[in-house]
Design brief:
The protein is mostly helical. It is built from 7 helices and no strands.
Length: 114
């Protein structure tokens, strides 16, 4: 299946607009718009990787393989979750470790409240 069809399918499934996909995938709006409007069958590897990372799908799914995990799996992230992952990945390794510690402390405190 062509990349533009797969991207359109994902956008419909997740109710995303081109600008949202571009932001989530850290791509220029014009790149995503071009894929969809020009009905591109293929994209460069760098764009494919950003799309798969940002949308939380495998490169195989992006190529048209539907042997993907179902929507109920942990890999099917909401737009908000995807944004959080993107922000986390942008942190330095030291800050990722600190954030992880804070999260564990917070979750531990939550467990003791219930």
């Amino acid at each position: 299946m062509e990349i533009y069809k797969i991207l359109n399918e994902l956008m419909q499934e997740r109710q995303l607009k081109i600008a949202e996909v571009a932001r989530i995938c850290d791509l220029p709006d014009s790149t995503v718009r071009s894929i969809v409007q020009r009905q591109q069958k293929r994209v460069g590897l760098d764009v494919a990787i950003k799309l798969s990372d940002g949308l939380g799908i495998t490169l195989e799914r992006l190529q048209g393989s539907h042997d993907e995990l179902d929507e109920s799996s942990e890999s099917a992230l909401s737009v908000r979750e995807q944004e959080m992952v993107r922000k986390f990945r942008a942190l330095s390794p030291e800050n990722q470790a600190k954030l992880h510690e804070l999260l564990l402390l917070y979750l531990g405190a939550q467990d003791h409240e219930t």
